[in-house]
Amino acid sequence: xxxxxxxxxxxxxxxxxxxxxxxxxxxxxxxxxxxxxxxxxxxxxxxxxxxxxxxxxxxxxxxxxxxxxxxxxxxxxxxxxxxxxxxxxxxxxxxxxxxxxxxxxxxxxxxxxxxxxxxxxxxxxxxxxxxxxxxxxxxxxxxxxxxxxxxxxxxxxxxxxxxxxxxxxxxxxxxxxxxxxxxxxxxxxxxxxxxxxxxxxxxxxxxxxxxxxxxxxxxxxxxxxxxxxxxxxxxxxxxxxxxxxxxxxxxxxxxxxxxxxxxxxxxxxxxxxxxxxxxxxxxxxxxxxxxxxxxxxxxxxxxxxxxxxxxxxxxxxxxxxxxxxxxxxxxxxxxxxxxxxxxxxxxxxxxxxxxxxxxxxxxxxxxxxxxxxxxxxxxxxxxxxxxxxxxxxxxxxxxxxxxxxxxxxxxxxxxxxxxxxxxxxxxxxxxxxxxxxxxxxxxxxxxxxxxxxxxxxxxxxxxxxxxxxxxxxxxxxxxxxxxxxxxxxxxxxxxxxxxxxxxxxxxxxxxxxxxxxxx
Length: 519
Description:
mainly alpha; elongated; single chain; about 55% helix; two-stranded parallel ribbon
């Protein structure tokens, strides 16, 4: 465990590459919160050693894919050493063909970091100069313009990023979209001329797939913890019985995440006058309340398994060809480490888990706003009819849930061969990770609506007091979202509670009171 493993990513100010594995928190620190990237001496030494080997290969005119041959099914075309640089420039230009909406800033930054981690392990033959420029782009907050649609696994988004490295393409700098060469010049940086192997290395691998999967996983793990909090609050204000969270039934299921979730809920609700008053109010609750341990627990199990695969990929080498410093002359091996199946399949699994989390959360929202079920004022407003109250936020949750259900269809089961059938099995891991990332934010919005409505419901239980933990959450929400006495513009309220969830403020508050929530 590194010193960053216990820190919030916002508190990590620098990430040094080269000594040990990089963590999910460190990726988030760089991608979302602008932590600086540096290289250790070890990182620099192994990059330089690998580069010396690739230059020797070129001098010896060895037949190496993408160095002295063309790409894809053009690998039968031999390229002279004199044309090596032209070949690398051409691959970047020709592969920059993504279309549509641009990738978000944190996604682009995460991909750039993954490129540095991948190519910095000493098996790619890229010059340190190139990697230092990419690190400088991150540290100077220069953001390449990257259309995000149309990739089957890698290549195109990375090629758009690589255009900036050679002073082409476009980039965001100081809030303006400018030509790439101008963005570099304004920040005092200079483009590079790509040498042999470098263009191929910059666009190959699982960098984009892994980057988006890391962001999706981080959001999802935080959402799973948040769901225990919002679910506990819903149980409390809906007069649910805590008896379903007695540890004895959960010991009979051989899934530790179920028992841990039940303990989370009981810890969160400990000391609640509302829970104590209504513990015998009904014999048993609806499944969206009673089965929180089973459903949330299963989701956490999937996320744990996904984390193992994604963290492994983060710290793997996914380039092709690979340069091994064996014997005096070294050796280049052509393989398929660029395939994203390990991450893609688990990204699909994350999507299915998120769909289940969204499903149960939306049902709790409906119970909160539906007076036929809640025993509270209809749509949680004092004067319904004249006021719609929280009627329509439930529609928003339902709409988001519909999108999530469609997106949860696995991407990696598809296959459309490319490159004249040279690439006849395609992972489609890019879209698997992309949609998991998109879904993770949609789920956070659904959780925000549950938290907002549960907070409103709590007001109707006075003078009974909630638990100290849920009262703290109530106060945090109320610091930004006032009680609803009559209809108002609710969109800013939802966005503010979403921000509190997304930035980890809700989880942080709860864990400061009762210690870390179990996963």
